[in-house]
Design brief:
The chain is α/β, with parallel strands linked by helices. The protein folds into two domains: 142 residues, 3-Layer(aba) Sandwich (Rossmann fold); 160 residues, Dihydrodipicolinate Reductase, domain 2 (2-Layer Sandwich). The chain is built from ten helices and 14 strands. It has an eight-stranded mixed β-sheet with strand order 8-9-10-7-11-12-13-14, covered by helices on one side. Strands 3-2-1-4-5-6 form a six-stranded parallel β-sheet, sandwiched between helices. Helix 4 packs parallel to helix 5 and helix 5 packs antiparallel against helix 10. It starts with 6 loop residues before the first strand and ends with a helix. The model has no long low-confidence stretch (mean pLDDT 95). It comes from Nonomuraea helvata. InterPro entries: Gfo/Idh/MocA-like_OxRdtase_N (IPR000683), Gfo/Idh/MocA_oxidrdct_glycsds (IPR050463), GFO_IDH_MocA-like_dom (IPR055170), NAD(P)-bd_dom_sf (IPR036291). This is Gfo/Idh/MocA family protein.
Length: 319
């Protein structure tokens, strides 16, 4: 794309993330939101009231067929990602999609295959791709501050699922597309994959409540480094914790963006110079990708590796 031209963007899905990205893109100097689509009339009317400039349609197929675009952002339920992404890529459009990549592994593999065949820009919105805490840990590993990595631990607790801000998205609560493994753990599995290399499942166990999973335990290997995951929907404070244990120094990310380092005595908070990372910064990275520049964003191939890890829980569940 020409340096000065705005990227003509279509937004598919106007739920929590779609509405947020629409708002961010409307204010971003590199983007022009041309059209947004959602089958919910209420979602469309809320978006139109906040941002009357773009066109709005109920059918994403109309968005793809009838509007001149450079890129699409996909925030519809996961089971629809592959259909819209493949159509867009075959039409020559760049695609920025929400995670998970897909739910069906064959559809995720198709997305990666089509992306490679068409050469179109493709990206997945993993928040840990540019969070300051994640970048700081990557730098610590690069410079050897951690010493030998002994292991990684992921811990999550949710007093309720879905979380209150997602209650309107019914699919988030369901086993077919939702659950905390796809919605939350995927971000941290991506981070581990990026820092330590591809993970191989050793053992996964999951139990289900009325809808999505209520417990999950897993062991993976990154080379010879053990990676453990435990998650619960249970009484207690909402917890998001990722810890890398090193022989010389350990690192812990809590609540998505707070970084701590641990010596042989205690955990110490780290003041971060890097930006926190946001939808704005990742949209900026997407614009960079469309100019052919290197970016921090995950691509569909990254997303497929994470999808295999997450779906391993569901394919190997205990009856």
């Amino acid at each position: 794309m020409e340096m000065g031209s705005k990227i003509r963007l279509g937004v598919i899905g106007l739920g929590v993330m779609g509405a947020e990205m629409l708002d961010v893109a409307q204010r971003h100097p590199r983007f022009e939101v041309v059209v947004a689509a959602d089958p919910s009339e209420q979602a469309v009317e809320r978006a139109r009231a906040a941002h009357p400039g773009p066109a709005y349609v109920g059918d994403p197929e109309e968005l793809l067929a009838r509007h001149a675009l450079d890129a699409v952002y996909i925030a519809s339920p996961p089971a629809t990602h592959a259909h819209y992404a493949v159509r867009a890529m075959k039409a020559g459009l760049a695609v920025f999609a929400e995670k998970p990549l897909a739910v069906d592994l064959a559809e995720g593999e198709e997305m990666v295959t089509v992306a490679a065949a068409t050469g179109t820009v493709n990206a997945l919105n993993f928040v840990m791709s540019d969070r300051g805490a994640a970048l700081a840990v990557a730098e610590a590993l690069r410079t050897g501050q951690a010493g030998t990595v002994r292991g990684v631990e992921l811990r999550f607790t949710f007093p309720e699922w879905p979380r209150s801000f997602q209650e309107s998205a019914g699919w988030v609560a369901g086993r077919a597309q939702g659950g905390f493994l796809r919605e939350v753990a995927s971000h941290y599995l991506f981070l581990t994959d990026r820092l330590l290399g591809p993970l191989s499942p050793v053992h996964t166990h999951v139990t289900y409540g009325a809808a999505a999973e209520d417990t999950a335990h897993g062991l993976f290997l990154a080379g010879d480094v053990p990676v453990t995951l435990s998650g619960h929907v249970a009484a207690g404070p909402e917890t998001y914790e990722w810890t890398l244990y090193g022989s010389d120094r350990s690192y812990r990310i809590t609540d998505w963006s707070r970084l701590w380092h641990g010596d042989h005595r205690d955990w110490t908070p780290v003041d971060l110079a890097e930006p926190r990372g946001s939808e704005h910064t990742r949209l900026s990275e997407f614009a960079r990708a469309m100019r052919g520049e290197e970016t921090t964003l995950a691509d569909f191939a990254d997303g497929l590796r994470v999808q295999h890890l997450v779906e391993h829980f569901h394919r190997h569940r205990t009856p």
